[in-house]
Amino acid sequence: MERRTFLRTAVVGSSAAAFGGTLWRGAAYAAPAQPGTGPYGALQAANANGIALPAGFTSRIVARSGQTVPGTSYTWHSAPDGGAVFADGSGWIYVSNSEVSSGSGGGASAVRFDSAGNVTSASRILSGTNNNCAGGRTPWNTWLSCEEVTRGFVYETDPWGVNAAVQRPALGRFKHEAAAADPDHGYIYLTEDETDGRFYRFRPTTWGNLASGTLEVLVAGTATSGPVTWAAVPDPDGSPTQTRYQVSGAKVFNGGEGCFYAAGTCWFTTKGDNRVWAYDANASSISLVYDDSLVTGGTAPLTGVDNVTRSGSGDLYVAEDGGNMEICLITPDGTVAPFLRISGQSGSEITGPAFSPDGTRLYFSSQRGTSGSSSGGITYEVKGPFRS
What we know:
This protein is mainly β. It has no helices and 28 strands. Strands 1, 2, 22, 23, 24 and 25 form a 6-stranded mixed beta sheet that branches. The chain has a 5-stranded antiparallel beta sheet with strand order 12-13-14-15-17, with no helix packed on it. A hairpin with a 4-residue loop joins strand 20 and strand 21. It is globular and about 55 Å long. The chain starts with 33 loop residues before the first strand and ends in a 5-residue tail after the last strand.
């Protein structure tokens, strides 16, 4: 995919249970996940929205690019990408990036829902930025929207649209993809979408304020598992030497994509080699959760790994950029299986998976829809008996 501190007392979005839930097999994974039957069984025939889902699950279209969000006067942005959910009283807000240039409407938008899941409003929360790909939610309820351009910025954005977005250069200037906040250890993890990208972490001088701090890069040689160290990036501004070339021995990751932190682990994906990684923040070690080249139980079900989120049960949900337009889940016991598939949209990619606060609804987008263009994006909701 070529893609001030805001304090609130609201409950952190996505499911609060997502920070607990079932424990995985351990920080050092014995072996990457293998194909098997998922917890919800086989996919049924595609429904009226063109989505194949397990029995008991339903879908609806929340918004379409270039069209007014139903129930509002707001026109949904083009090329919807990374997203997150924030609790909003008895309702919630889904935030979504727009992966287009500043001249074409780059930035981010938000849709608000009431307690019954009805759309109540929609609005722009970030404008004038470039190729906002993924990002991450903070524990103080802001959205980190990341520019996927050379020496791109991270913007800290208010999902409620009350406070103006703030550029956060201390988090480094590089081709940002996603961010994940680790409140247990006081870091923000960051991925870089380059074929020779790196994996970073940022420690704010004061947790909750991203104006200053230390940017570090992971050092691990060529290892795919085992202990790692971190080294400070001398010049986070990335000029004249780009950040990924400043520290000798920094581990190369082939096309960093989504990342998500929960329960002591940051999971992140690399599209160039179709891998899902786990960084154990307690042990400071990495391991492979999934690698399509190591699948032994048949055809690899998950290809084109991209955005990732986690349910309250501990299941990882990984969206595909390419592949066959699926969101696949990886269970804590190491089974990987399709959860949904979108038909008739082979020129698109799935983006922005995020759960509602109660864990019963999953939001995501098809970035280019059936048209294959940025103006054809579709944002969906899937509702059903997600295990918790």
